[in-house]
């Protein structure tokens, strides 16, 4: 309705302007034609000759009558400088004074005016008749009545009305088509409803705890909210950036896996992606328009919408839970071992072999306490000591041997305990899996060198080793060399394979360290992992 009213108002305005312009042009054309007629008469020597005779009307009136008929003018008045008419369309007016302005003509100027005379309002041009000395001897006025000019305007009015009606019909059709298109695009929502809806959506995008990223088909990130900026390490941006201000996907500092997902536009459900310090769960789907839009049989696709959830804390809790499970398993195994040994001691005592029972208990205590005393004295982090002791008990239960060598002990202070547990726990788990899958002897070696400059962890196993061609792939989330339970990590229902080393890489990067894999330099012959972590003080200095 608003568009139709606009078209009606525009048609009325254009029609009025066209009519006024046609009228002005008609008056201007009439003035120019009358000027040409008056100038031609003034240039005729007959007028100057007759002006010097006692009765100029006798010669000029017939001449004026012929010119009026041939030039299609309503009147031609030739007069004396004192306004006395020598000719007129009505012979009764001859000899009477001319009605109108003549002062400019008396000064030798030609001018045109619209004024009322004996024949009514008219458009007239007055031209002076000068002799050889430049003196004004007569005046010539040629004109047409306003009624005659209006008849010419009326002839153009039909064209103006036809043009206005055509413009109204075309504008109405365009307005109807535009309204239909807008209704299909906006799904029938009006401007006020769209403004309200946009305000709601903007508030939601700013308040939700999930990151939202919208990418168009041209590879531009047209929108991302505050949570997405925090999760991806981007600068915060307006939810509705100005046209042309949206950054290109290639210009954003994204991880290669995330960049590949966003650029592909494929549908993704709960995929896990690692950034520098976060574990993100990503979902992505196409942004589809309403059906039948733009005359297409299929809905238009405007780009993709991706949502991001932070899973870092959940994975951290999972690592802590795995550590507690390891310790619990170790305690269960030790309880079983101690129960057997206690039964042995009781049986020896019942048999009266008290000395043998005492010797057996003493040796068992020495063996059990040896690793504990060594770790407690060497490693200044109790949680890390407990982890290593638990892994040692687990190795014993699985038929493997874990050898621990600790050099120094003052470089672990200030390092995040959760990250240390993630690094050592996953490296030892992989080493034990590799060792127990290989033929005997099944051994794992852990070497910890710590000092004021930092800490170095090396883990070696007697497994089959790692193919040099896949060294770079083992750090990727979801990649696994284990035959059983291989699956795409992060997919619903998939086994938790290919996760540990990816978390190790992330934790090492978070602590500013380095990580490497090579063939073992020890006699074990399996894989050899080395982690170098700088001391907290040196890391701050580097920053």
UniProtKB/TrEMBL annotation:
Its EC number is 2.7.13.3. One of its GO terms (molecular function) is kinase activity. It is a multi-pass membrane protein. InterPro entries: 2C_sensor_his_kinase (IPR050980), HATPase_C_sf (IPR036890), HATPase_dom (IPR003594), His_kinase_dom (IPR005467), PAS (IPR000014), PAS-like_dom_sf (IPR035965), sCache_3 (IPR033463), Sensor-like_sf (IPR029151). Pfam families: HATPase_c, PAS_8, sCache_3_2. It comes from the Bacteria. The keyword Nucleotide-binding applies. Keywords: ATP-binding, Cell membrane, Kinase, Membrane, Nucleotide-binding, Phosphoprotein, Transferase, Transmembrane, Transmembrane helix, Two-component regulatory system. PANTHER family: SENSOR PROTEIN CREC. This is histidine kinase. It comes from Arthrobacter gyeryongensis.
